[in-house]
Prior knowledge:
It is an enzyme of class 1 (oxidoreductase). The chain has 15 helices and 4 strands. By secondary structure, the protein is an all-alpha fold. The chain has one domain (50-338). The strands form 2 sheets. A two-stranded parallel ribbon has the order 1-4. Helix 2 crosses helix 11 (222-245), helix 3 (78-104) packs across helix 5 and helix 3 (78-104) runs parallel beside helix 11 (222-245). The site of one zinc ion (ZN) has 7 residues, from helix 3 and helix 5.
Amino acid sequence: MTFRSSQTVSTIIEQSPSLKHDDIGADRNMTDDILDTTYTKKVDPKPPIKIVWRNVILMCLLHIGAFYGLFFIPAAKPITLAWATVCFMLSALGVTAGAHRLWSHRSYKAKLPLRIFLAVVNSMAFQNDIYEWARDHRVHHKFSETDADPHNATRGFFFSHIGWLLIRKHPDVIEKGKKLDLSDLKADKVVMFQRRNYKLSILVMCFILPTVIPWYFWNESFSVAFYVPCLLRYALVLNATWLVNSAAHMYGNQPYDKTINPRENPLVAIGAIGEGFHNYHHTFPFDYSSSEFGLKFNITTGFIDLMCLLGLASNCKRVSKETIMARKMRTGDGSHRSG
Ligand SMILES: [Zn+2]
Ligand SMILES: [Zn+2]
């Protein structure tokens, strides 16, 4: 499928022989998602942990509500379960194809209608606005597994999964985050419009729409509509996303770079519609597929491919097989040979 590889890394390298593989981010007018190994941990003492009780209470309520929602599933109409699935997919795409692959990594280009769509469904996922999500994510890549990484996985599974949202950020995250080049995000009117209207947009997209549609259009009970497509779906998308930060930084092979923590985790890839190939992704963050394997367990890649076919997306960055193989031989753990 030629439309998927409109400009491969090898093409760029051929055109610019002086460009090294790991500098390829320059082609996207941003490089702040490339690992910066010059930063090292500051010495102790560690700053005190300040719990954000508002977030603790809200997250407890959400997860209790989502668990309660499981018991409403048998009573739900099939069309409501289908709607909940649609809401799950849309909100997940808002994060994976939107906040992540488009806005954090600039791994492809999207026309205005697609950017508007992705911003709208991103609000359905309610994971902070695109600007903040992309800033946190770039600093996660640039200073991965250090104090400047917002969900530093060396602090354990719980911290990297949800704990990081329940306490104040480490000062290094704020300090390093301020130094990132976010000019591309500031220049994107869609991103800034969503940021200005974020509260209203999450109220409508994450809570009102998922609940009211089944209740109004096919007479679903209000409780089922609120607990299943709204709360349960929201909690599932959150946890699927968080597993990329926790499980995919701990469990799995490192075929591309054994010197970094992120791992290849197919189970996470299934839950997070394509985002579990995390050793690959941290090695080549500019690849629009976030994986060596294109469409395998990767609905997000299928979605971006479809958008390319429709003319709404273009310029998908892909890494050549030769570059991948060279990297595997140079820094991989050898696991690709057995699988
Ligand atoms: Zn990561
Ligand atoms: Zn990323």
